[in-house]
Amino acid sequence: MNSTETTRILLAALLGLTAAAANLLGGSLIAHRKWSRQFLKYFIALGAGFMLATATLEMIPESLRLRSDNASIFFNSTNAVFVYVLAGYFLVHFFEHTVAPHFHFGEETHHEEVHGAHASYAALMGLVIHTFFDGVAIAAGLLVSTWLGGVVFLAVFLHKIPEGFTVSSLMLASGQSRRAAFASSAILGAATLGGMALMFVLRSTVADALPFSAGVTLYVAASDLIPEVNREPGAGMAVLVFLGVAILLALKATFRVQ
Ligand SMILES: [Zn+2]
Ligand SMILES: [Zn+2]
């Protein structure tokens, strides 16, 4: 293992642990609901804009570039990038909203809908699959460049605290203990680390994993987070989405090497 590789693994471990810790922080916020509600909404709105911009302006173009270098071990057509994006998008739709009867981001207040083990465990499984690909996305980004890994990490990080909060409020609403609620946010953190570790092991699939995780990112941003933004009255939250896009553009103008 050369020193660049060691640095990359250390950076990956640092980013992965930070993302997992954000899940745990979100899970623990359930005990301080009052002040945290507003603060979580800001993260959801900023995260939605930042994630959409990262997926469309960084992850998909980078996937097309990898493809033109013949880096894929499965398909070499550039069209395959869009097939993967669509497949990643629908994977989350299937597990979060087809298998799980009731799931949405933000605080779970519909006790009737999630009562009983099936509904809450199905939603947890959907989130585990989504968070696994959060990890795959960060690691795939890092395998391409530090820049890509860095912005994908930020995209993931911005929705990690609301994600931890979402899962623990879901567990509480379904009648489970506070301990189980917190443990479920830890499971999401672990799934993220698992996704990162597997991506590093199966690094030869990066040209396939990157567009697939871009599709997952698009779903989380456009179909999980944006609906929560749109439920808010007034234009304030909607404006924050644009701020999320602007932050990515500003980072790109400042740090993107090319
Ligand atoms: Zn609900
Ligand atoms: Zn996520």
Report on this structure.
Helix 1 (3-28) runs antiparallel to helix 5 (117-144), helix 2 packs across helix 6 and helix 5 runs antiparallel to helix 6 (146-173). It is built from 9 helices and no strands. With 258 residues, the protein is mostly helical. It has one domain (3-255). Residues 102, 104, 108, 110, 113 line the site of one zinc ion. One zinc ion is lined by residues 130-131, 134, 159, 163, 220.
Strand content: under 5%
Ions, cofactors and other ligands present here are: zinc ion
Shape call: globular
Mean pLDDT level: 92
Order of helices and strands: HHHHHHHHH
Can I get a quick summary?
With 258 residues, this protein is mostly helical. It contains 9 helices and no strands.
Descriptive key words:
mainly alpha; binds zinc ion
Secondary-structure blueprint of this entry?
Elements: H1 3-28, H2 33-68, H3 79-99, H4 111-114, H5 117-144, H6 146-173, H7 178-201, H8 206-230, H9 236-255
Helix pairs in contact: 1-5, 1-6, 1-7, 2-6, 2-8, 2-9, 3-5, 3-8, 5-6, 5-7, 5-8, 6-7
One zinc ion (ZN) binds at residues 102, 104, 108, 110, 113.
